[in-house]
Design a protein that fits this description.
Shape: rod-shaped
Number of domains: 1
Helix content: over 70%
Radius of gyration: 14 Å
Largest sheet: none
Length: 33
């Protein structure tokens, strides 16, 4: 395993989780959109 690869994977995971959280928050705030 490459350390650089691990760092990239962590970054992508964080971005992905943020994206999901944002979608969920938007759904809660505005469920009819």
């Amino acid at each position: 395993m490459d350390i650089k690869y691990m760092e990239d994977a962590e970054m992508y995971t964080a971005v992905y989780l943020e994206f999901i959280a944002e979608k969920m928050v938007l759904k809660i705030i505005n469920p009819y959109k």
